[in-house]
Write a structure and sequence with these properties.
Elements (H helix, E strand, L loop, with lengths): L9 E7 L5 H14 L4 E6 L9 E3 L5 E3 L1 E3 L3 H6 L5 E4 L9 H10 L3 E7 L11 H7 L2 E5 L1 E2 L6 E2 L1 E6 L2 E2 L13 E6 L11 H31 L1
Helix pairs in contact: 3-4
Bound molecules: zinc ion.
C-alpha cells in the first residue's frame, strides 16, 4: 500500500528495460498532474535526440512538451515555480542529477524520473542507482521478452541481428544495430569477440596435439624397452 506524502516534496522513479513503457508511465503521471491544474515542467538530456528534439516522445507516439538540457544543473535554473518536475531518460544525465532531484524534492516539489536501470551489459546505468536509493517510490516496469514472450527485465543489444559482446564498439560501420527486451534466461552477452574465441580454440587445439604427441612418444619409448 502506497501512501503519498501530504506535505513536502518527494522523488518517484519509474525504471525498467527498453520498451517497458517508462516514458508512457511518466507522461501518464504528468498529464494527471496537469489535469489537477498543477504546474508541470519536463526535462530530458539534450543528447537523446530520438524522434524529436523538444518533446518527450514515447514508443506509442504520444508526446508532452519537454525541455532538452545539456546538464542536470540547468534543470534547477529552468524549473521555475513548477510543482511537478518530470525527468525523462535520466540515465544519460551526469551524476549530479541525484543532487538536483534531492534539491527539487527538498524545495517541496514532486519529482518524477524515468530511467533505464541497466545498460545492455546488465550493469547499473550511470546515475540511476543513486536516484533509486534516494527516492521515496520506485516502480520497475517489465517489457515482453522477444524470444520467449515472458516478462522482460533486460535490454538485448544486437549488431547485425546477433547479440553484441560487451567490448563491441559503440558504432560499427555497415552493421545494423538494434535493441530488444529480453528476460534473464534469454538475454545473451557473448564474453569475448569471435576472433578471440578462434584464437583460444586454436591454442587449445595446439595444446591437445602436444599432449597426444607426448603420450605417443611415451608409448613408443615404453615399446622399445
Ligand atoms: Zn525470454
Amino acid at each position: 500500500m502506497r501512501e503519498m506524502p501530504t506535505r513536502g516534496g518527494w522523488i518517484e522513479v519509474i525504471c525498467g528495460s527498453m520498451f517497458s513503457g517508462k516514458s508512457e508511465e511518466l507522461m501518464r503521471r504528468l498529464r494527471r498532474a496537469q489535469i489537477a491544474r498543477q504546474r508541470v515542467a519536463v526535462f530530458k538530456p539534450l543528447l537523446d535526440n530520438r524522434y524529436h528534439a523538444t518533446d518527450v516522445v514515447s514508443h506509442d507516439g504520444t508526446r508532452l512538451a519537454a525541455r532538452p538540457v545539456d546538464t542536470s544543473a540547468e534543470i534547477l535554473r529552468l524549473v521555475g515555480d513548477a510543482a511537478v518536475v518530470g525527468i525523462d531518460e535520466a540515465q544519460f544525465f551526469d551524476t549530479n542529477i541525484v543532487d538536483v532531484a534531492l534539491r527539487l524534492a527538498d524545495d517541496g516539489k514532486r519529482v518524477v524520473v524515468a530511467a533505464l536501470d541497466m545498460d545492455f551489459k546488465n550493469e547499473p546505468f550511470g546515475p540511476v542507482p543513486g536516484l533509486l536509493a534516494v527516492s521515496e517510490f520506485v516502480d520497475k516496469l517489465q517489457a515482453i521478452c522477444q524470444v520467449c514472450a515472458g516478462p522482460a527485465t533486460r535490454t538485448q543489444r544486437l549488431i547485425g541481428g546477433r547479440p553484441a559482446s560487451p567490448d563491441e564498439p559503440v558504432i560499427r560501420v555497415g552493421a545494423q544495430e538494434s535493441y530488444e527486451p529480453r528476460c534473464r534466461e534469454c538475454h545473451q552477452l557473448p564474453v569475448a569477440r569471435p576472433s578471440l574465441d578462434l584464437a583460444e580454440s586454436a591454442l587449445e587445439g595446439a595444446l591437445t596435439a602436444t599432449v597426444v604427441d607426448i603420450g605417443r612418444a611415451r608409448r613408443e619409448t615404453v615399446g622399445t624397452r
